[in-house]
Fold this sequence. Notes:
The protein is α/β, with parallel strands linked by helices. Helices cover 42% and strands 12% of the residues. It has helices at residues 75-87, 92-98, 102-105, 129-141, 148-156, 171-174, 190-209, 230-241, 260-267, 287-304, 310-313, 321-327, 353-359, 361-380, 387-400, 421-433, 465-470, 497-514, 518-527, 532-542, 560-580, 592-601, 616-628, and strands spanning 2-7, 29-32, 35-38, 50-51, 107-111, 117-121, 182-184, 187-188, 222-227, 251-255, 275-280, 314-317, 334-335, 408-413, 451-453, 477-482, 550-555.
Amino acid sequence: MCLFVVISCACSAPRGAWGYPDSTPHAEREVRGDAVVARGGWSGYLGGTMNSAAASGVAGVGGGGGGAESIDRSAAWGALAAHAKEMAGVHLRSLFAEDAQRFEKFSLEFKAGADASVLLDYSKNRVTARTMELLRDLARAACGGVGVSEMARRMFAGEKINFTEQRAVLHVALRNRGNRAILVDGKDVMPGVNAVLEQMKGFSEAVRSGAWRGHTGKAITDVVNIGIGGSDLGPVMVCHALTPWSKRGLRMHFVSNVDGTHMAEVLRNVSHETTLFIVASKTFTTQETLCNALTAREWFLSQAKEPAAVAKHFVALSTNAEKVAAFGIDTRNMFPFWDWVGGRYSLWSAIGLPIAISVGFEKFVELLEGAHEMDNHFVSAPLERNLPVTLALLGVWYGNFVSPAAESHAILAYDQYLDRFAAYFQQGDMESNGKSVDRQGRRVAYSTGPVIWGEPGTNGQHAFYQLIHQGTRLIPCDFLAPCRTQNPVGNEAMGRHHPILLSNFFAQTEALAFGKTEEQVRAELKAGKVEGTMAEMLVPHKVFEGNRPTNSILVGEVNARTLGALIAMYEHKIFTQGMIWNVNSFDQWGVELGKQLAQKILPELGGGEMVKTHDSSTNGLINHYKRSRGR
């Protein structure tokens, strides 16, 4: 049986940088005015009762600091700019030569239980201890002096930091495994979160066990997730990453493109008797999602004939009960989520239903738990030991201070199961921080979000690594890999493949950092008996300048808990950078204009008359399309 998912989308101990005692990283907190007080027993701002009304004592909650000066005019920014000039001629070769303990000093490790660990080695970056100290000062100066730590407190407390839409930003509540109260407009959101989780548990178990049956009595064999943006990218990425735990024989399909080809190719390979569609759209009005949903329903009814059968094969992720019912979906099978769940942060919500169906609800909970542990780390670890903050600061360093500035950032996962990880964070990062106006509505005079891209290793090595190694552009890279593979294939005890994979991982970061000097090239050519004119011609082509920055991120293995921690780590990195750049990381007005114009153009594509309502280029393209339709 097939399932289609349609988704639109004060304390005596020393204090850490987030205002929490270092000695009590799992302390329960409460808010009194604008002060956070440790009470012991829980980790993170989700502890205690976090009331946005009570916690809004600091001026400028919405705009992040009222009319404060731009971050690039702050003393912290100026100090970093001066330091960058001092660092301009420094090479990673010299940094490592001068300090044999550099790895120990510039690496961090996070653990979330016995089966989840994350090691971040950032020693192969063009930074010193002084660089990192100045970058942390910048984090403290963010948002007009409010600081990253205070803005994080506001987010975890349920304040409406997405001020342009007057919404809280509470994806962290969706994975609040401590289940402490979080108040938005005076109401605790956790009972609703837990109710949806229980609904997801019951439904996913029914589908996986075969208890949920289609209109002819057959069990589900195929689930088709029809979504767009975060409601597609998140479930796709996680289902791919957790494939070893997927239920074999229960096939997952993902349709996102409104191009009919995407849907058509999926429908060719499923049966209406054994297919379940999950239609997910908060308002049930998203154009692409509803177009695909209607096509799926038409296909289904062309074979099932009876409209009542729709209720056995379609469920909804939505809050619009009237439209859901009109579509033919039983509203008892409608899974809600909230306006404080941003699309690109929604996989933790009902949008994660395909994940729970694919790998089981228990693994979905482990995903939440790993993320929750990283949330705890983010809000309790001091800046100098904080993984998400460290990653964020390094990105700001290369994007705003190093010359030439980095315009893009590559995420290179050396694990085939993470083949969609970079694509997922293209949206997560670029939709969040691709902004040119700060929280006060001023045009920024500095670079904000980078272009995020990447492919799995070692495939990328045979595609674009040439540019990373020897091109003119600075491209910082994150290399991710598990120490243990889920598939130790080959004759050796650890498998033949994984050691080869990891040898490439380690070699690439070493080569990017240290390169190959002209002297080394000449020695190699001489050893290979290449001399004279040929040698002189080859030398400049075989030199690698090195000094290309990388972060190495090693995990024990890619499992649900580890994956949850990794995703949350990057989410909080994005948040930190957004606060430093003083932008609203949680709206996405940039996607609206194209949608508005498309609504205007769509009716113009019918009929035979030529269009004259746009610029000459758009008119010409539309009219060419209309003339060509019948050919």
